[in-house]
Amino acid sequence: MQPCVAVTGANRNIGAHLAARFLDEGFGVVAHYRSETAAIERLAARGARLVRGSFDDAAACTDIAERLAAAAPSLRAIIHNASSFAPTAADIPAAATQFQDFFAVHMLAPYILNTHLAAHLDGTPEAPADIIHITDIYADNPAPAQDLYCATKAGLQNLSLAFAKRYAPRIKVNAIQPGPISFEAWHDENHRSAVLEATPLGRMGSPEAIYAAVRAIMANDYQTGAVIPVDGGRRLGRG
Ligand SMILES: NC(=O)c1ccc[n+]([C@@H]2O[C@H](COP(=O)([O-])OP(=O)(O)OC[C@H]3O[C@@H](n4cnc5c(N)ncnc54)[C@H](OP(=O)(O)O)[C@@H]3O)[C@@H](O)[C@H]2O)c1
């Protein structure tokens, strides 16, 4: 049977690229998405199974997990890519709401999906399956302006280590920390050039660099609990 991979947030950018590349390689894909986009339509036209939903709270995450399991009873890997990113709001009630949203998508959803779907991951001790959490280099070195986003990505990274212990030896659990792969629309020119200036490789990365890291993890049957930066050296700065 064709091995199948689940990708969350597959309707745009890195998630859409990962799902498309898995299809290129002959994997079945279950693409989770929230908003309708041209990218998700293209994935569906290529045979991806779709599961729509927003990771709002435990009930919503559980419902999405059950529909993912129904769409793909046997999984080779789960890629937790869905994410929300914004600077922390200035006033406390707005920041508290952001914190809950970040927690839901970065920590609660991976926790519930992994717990529900572990039995559907088709790994063995000799050929373990994969859970891959996409975190951020800022999980280790938080940006004060985005502290709530960073804190919940750090929480996701910590969950990776706990899940690596819990699911060994049948499932490997690793994290990838992207650096600058794309800018947000609200990033101004000064910010963009400062980021490139502080990145040793001196350019933006590509979604394909993240896919290369995903596939390298999947190809390695003796790697679990690892946290892998794919950042052009951005976490180091230029020194
Ligand atoms: N791009 C970069 O430079 C960069 C840098 C560091 C880390 N990363 C990490 O790499 C991953 C992909 O980044 P990206 O730039 O491709 O992200 P993106 O363009 O912001 O896409 C995020 C995806 O997550 C979905 N999502 C957000 N909140 C959700 C929720 N509550 N419920 C369900 N889905 C939700 C979005 O759905 P909608 O389309 O409906 O909003 C979208 O599909 C993320 O984990 C991100 O943190 C990226």
Automatic annotation (TrEMBL):
GO terms for biological process: one-carbon metabolic process. It comes from the Bacteria. Keywords: NADP, One-carbon metabolism, Oxidoreductase. Belongs to the short-chain dehydrogenases/reductases (SDR) family. FolM subfamily. The keyword NADP applies. This is Dihydromonapterin reductase. It catalyses: (6S)-5,6,7,8-tetrahydrofolate + NADP(+) = 7,8-dihydrofolate + NADPH + H(+); 7,8-dihydromonapterin + NADPH + H(+) = 5,6,7,8-tetrahydromonapterin + NADP(+). Its EC number is 1.5.1.3, 1.5.1.50. GO terms for molecular function: dihydrofolate reductase activity. It is an enzyme of class 1 (oxidoreductase). It comes from Salinisphaera orenii MK-B5.
